[in-house]
From TrEMBL:
<feature type="domain" description="GFO/IDH/MocA-like oxidoreductase">
    <location>
        <begin position="145"/>
        <end position="276"/>
    </location>
</feature>
<feature type="domain" description="Gfo/Idh/MocA-like oxidoreductase N-terminal">
    <location>
        <begin position="34"/>
        <end position="137"/>
    </location>
</feature>
<protein>
    <submittedName>
        <fullName>Putative dehydrogenase</fullName>
    </submittedName>
</protein>
<dbReference type="InterPro" id="IPR036291">
    <property type="entry name" value="NAD(P)-bd_dom_sf"/>
</dbReference>
<dbReference type="InterPro" id="IPR000683">
    <property type="entry name" value="Gfo/Idh/MocA-like_OxRdtase_N"/>
</dbReference>
<dbReference type="GO" id="GO:0000166">
    <property type="term" value="F:nucleotide binding"/>
</dbReference>
<dbReference type="InterPro" id="IPR051317">
    <property type="entry name" value="Gfo/Idh/MocA_oxidoreduct"/>
</dbReference>
<dbReference type="Pfam" id="PF22725">
    <property type="entry name" value="GFO_IDH_MocA_C3"/>
</dbReference>
<dbReference type="InterPro" id="IPR055170">
    <property type="entry name" value="GFO_IDH_MocA-like_dom"/>
</dbReference>
<dbReference type="Pfam" id="PF01408">
    <property type="entry name" value="GFO_IDH_MocA"/>
</dbReference>
Length: 378
């Protein structure tokens, strides 16, 4: 059996949801061993958290620069091989760039950077580094999303002609109406989040999902965003019209002020022979619609699913798989790539997905600011 891949994590300490998600996901297929990192900006909290989760403290570093310096002193067969970046958005680019320049593989939370220009620089850095880079558009790891992708690519629903994606949350509703709270939340601070909140945080998930499952690229978009208050600099709601090649059109609706909504991410793809619908809050059901047969509901783990879907299924039919499993499948794909094993090109989102995501965010904001006009996504 091959040795486990040595994993380091930046951020994700304390009660961070994303930190728990990544740690559990990395442990799922017994491919990684968490050996060190910088979980918290405060060193005492950093050490305390490492002790809490049972990680030896000899490779828990004071800060990111010390992390790089000390790890590079170690022999290559002891050095951390891949680093997960779970910090606030504004730290993604400088950390990822230095990690790539230092020869590390990287798993980065989205949005990958805070600007499209930074994303392009990162792409050039990766080309020189020749390492592995993954962006955690988590939902691409769900078995039934992968089944949707395979069914579309093999023509089960025919030629795609209509796309409708919705991502609704309500978590920012109690914050946005309080002037003090909206001024002190990092998600609404352009210095820490970039130029967009809602589109940058969850709209980019929808954009990536559309291109992932259809295999098509969005060509132009028209965005109408909502900031709700004049002193709020970040969008918290928006509707974006999409145009693809060959007259295929779609819509992406995204909101963080959809009062009472939890994580309502719904994907609907319609072809000339049928349609497919998937909901993140009920991720084990893929609905297949046609005009001449009753509705079909596909579930994970059955032999009728594609090999790609089954490879990401850990449990027998009837045992629900969720977001931890989805992220675990992304980590599994990255492990295959690091070990130079054969893997499906859709097993984890790559630098290209991160770059297009940043371009989409900036073009959506530009479309809105220019008076809700059509703009090109390069």
């Amino acid at each position: 059996m091959s040795k486990k891949i040595r994993l380091g994590i930046l951020g994700g300490g304390g009660d961070s949801l994303i930190g728990v998600l990544h740690r559990i996901a990395s442990s799922m297929y017994d491919s990684y061993q968490l050996v060190g990192g910088v979980f918290n900006p405060n060193y005492d909290d950093n050490i305390g958290f490492a002790e809490q989760i049972g990680i030896p403290t000899n490779r828990i570093y004071k800060d990111f620069d010390v992390f790089i310096e000390e790890e590079l002193k170690l022999p290559e067969d002891e050095r951390i091989q891949v680093v997960s970046i779970l910090t606030p958005n504004f730290l993604h680019f400088p950390m990822a760039k230095k990690l790539l320049e230092s020869g590390f593989n990287v798993i980065c939370e989205k949005p990958m950077t805070t600007t499209f220009e930074e994303a392009q620089v990162l792409q050039e850095t990766l080309e020189k580094a020749n390492t592995i880079f993954a962006v955690t558009y988590t939902y691409t790891g769900y078995p039934m999303v992968r089944q949707m992708k395979e069914m579309i690519s093999t023509g089960v629903i025919g030629k795609v002609q209509k796309i409708d994606v919705q991502y609704y949350q309500g978590w920012i509703n109690p914050i946005i109406h309080d002037k003090e709270k909206r001024a002190s939340t990092w998600r609404l601070d352009p210095e820490k989040s970039g130029i967009s909140c809602c589109v940058g945080d969850i709209g980019t998930h929808g954009f990536d999902m559309i291109e992932y499952v259809t295999g098509m690229e969005v060509k132009t978009i028209l965005a109408d965003l909502n900031y709700l208050y004049a002193d709020n600099k970040m969008d918290i709601d928006g509707t974006i019209l999409l145009r693809f090649a060959e007259n295929v059109k779609g819509v992406l609706r995204t909101s963080q002020i959809a009062t009472g909504e939890e994580n309502n991410f719904t994907v609907k793809i319609y072809g000339d022979k049928g349609g497919l619908k998937w909901e993140q809050e009920n991720p084990n059901y893929l609905h297949h619609l046609t005009e001449d047969e009753p509705l079909k509901v596909l579930k994970p783990g059955h032999a009728y699913n594609s090999a790609f879907s089954l490879d990401g299924t850990k449990l027998p039919p009837g045992h629900p798989e969720g977001i931890f499993d989805s992220m675990g499948n992304i980590y599994k794909g990255v492990a295959k790539a690091i070990r130079k094993e054969k893997y499906h090109p859709g097993e984890f989102p790559t630098m290209k997905d991160g770059v297009r995501g940043m371009n989409f965010i900036e073009r959506a904001v530009a479309s809105h600011q220019q008076g809700n006009v059509w703009v090109e996504v390069k």
